Amino acid sequence: MLWYCVGWLASIVVLVHGFTASDYYVSPELIPGLSAIDNEDVVPEMYAGHIAFDGDDEIIKYFFWKFCHPKQYSDTLVFWFNGGPGCSSMDGALLETGPFRINSDGKAYLNPGSWHTRADIVYVDQPVGTGFSTSSSETPRYDNDLAMVTDHFMRFLDSYFQSFPDDLAKDIILAGESYAGQYLPFFADAIMKHNADLEDKYIKYDLKAVLIGNGWVDPNVQSLSYLPFAVEKGLIEKTNPHFSELLRAHEECQNVINGHLDGSDQKFAYEECEQIITLLLKFTRDTSTDAADDEVCLNVYDYTLRDSYPSCGMNWPIELPNIPKFFSTPGVMEALHLDAETLPRWHECDTEVLQALKNLRSKPSVDLLPSILESGVDILLFNGDHDLICNNKGVLDYVDNLNWGGQKGWSDKKQIYQWYHLNSESYAEEPAGYVEHDRNLTFISIYNASHMVANDHSLVSRGVLDIYMNNVLLEVIEGENFLLSADDLDILDEDEDDKKDSKENDETTDNETDNENYGDDSTPDLENNKLFKKSKNFIVTIMSLSLFGAICYYLYLKRFKRTRRAILVDRTNRHDNQNKTVSWADDLETGTELDPDQTQGRKFQTGGKKKNSYTRVPNTDLDESFELDDF
Length: 631
Known about the structure:
Blueprint lengths: L1 H16 L7 E2 L18 E10 L4 E10 L7 E6 L8 H6 L4 E3 L5 E3 L9 E5 L9 E2 L10 H18 L7 E7 L2 H17 L10 E7 L5 H5 L2 H7 L10 H16 L12 H13 L13 E2 L7 E2 L14 H6 L4 H4 L15 H6 L12 H6 L3 E7 L7 H10 L1 E2 L2 E2 L6 E8 L6 E10 L2 E6 L6 H4 L1 H12 L3 E5 L2 E7 L2 H25 L16 H5 L1 H24 L72
Parallel strand pairs: 4-7, 4-9, 9-10, 10-13, 13-18, 16-20
Antiparallel strand pairs: 1-2, 2-3, 3-7, 3-8, 5-6, 11-12, 14-15, 16-17, 17-18, 19-20
């Protein structure tokens, strides 16, 4: 009855709002390139367009593009945001975690590592002025503080669920990268406050987790990581003639932070700290006469690559010029329910959005992480280990400063795992990274990956979502913990089934020599049962029931194999209390400390490819920067 009332009220609101989910449906045949795909079962179900909501004295329209598995229902909904600020989330949809990539002809082709095969995912352009998101104001009005950005997102969310009321019952994951490290904790905090004001649990937003990729979360602490990280990776030597200037800039940053530790006149970020990365790029230029123009400067998003100066990564990734070509293809805008006549041509990042968001009132999102963690929401930080701008050291440094769950930083119960990914074609278990977990905070380092992890390794990046969703297997070898993810979850199921069969066979052998140890996964423990020792009839009965149970279990697996997860403990208990850790890490012993060097790990066959050296892309239509470009 309650759900009927909620549905009835949602229907009334939709009538007033004017748009239902069907109004946003996107026909695959209208997307260039998709008609060449013979198997329609691999083309996602899509919805896109503008979600309108009231601003203070204007109508704001956020552009979204939603992707769902065409054949399987998902009870999980991911909202994805790119950063900048001012960079379109179509980067995520068409360059990273989304179902498509765009070729040089501006046509879409399938991304085998798309996250939509694990959960429904919605890419949102925000704040106002980003991508295709606009307002009715004649004079452009941009959000100037994260509090305003958050208020607008919550209004968008309310309007979104008016058009997609069925999604209100789903588990929500907030995910994104880079400056989304600011957006996501603010959005999570607002959702928690929204829920606290509601008595009816059926209309609350069921936030489960926040996934932050190479996030800009603590500007000052992360700025202090640049110089030591650069020295550690050999990007600059202490013999560099300008090293003393860098060291002085580092000290000035530390001093200004120390001068505001009491909270007085504390700023969102300090210019003294922002100068460090600028000077580092300047002093590490290749000034030799034989250096190619596009090999002069470090790429801040992948320090193993080079770029022209002062771009230093702004021309990257190389597929970026294909995206505006895709959106400029006649008919694409209309297919996405956009007005090509009134909207500006798509460009990746808007510098005016960046310049407006000064955050004179808000403190960095790192201050919100402890309360989010203590509420029971999981936070997962995943980082490409080749990123410079949001490097591993900076992330781990601010984690060390966090107070949550009654303790500061990682505790002595921190669990560590080496992560391998099973390639479905070669069946090679390839080193993917390592995982650190404590309470409900998880850090994942992805080997040989940049600021945009999914652009480098789409299949491995989906493993990040699999780790959270328990689509992984665990092995403990000589006291070390290993996680295994896979392109195809059926492979993990078969692996787990084989192990169970082997275990059952071993137990059967043991039973022949020692009846006291008889038992399997589907029967009670009979080790100390006196009836077992005295009655052969009882044994026969139990064995018959076990055989029947095993057959039923086998048929169940065959019928529901795609939805069964290879988990260690029941995921439904994940959020039973505030201090509950993520379920895949429960009840495990603390692992052995890992050397973060990707050469460590199990001695398995690897099939990873080394990324080609970077070459500059033509700078057509890319005068705006990529993410975090205000050096």
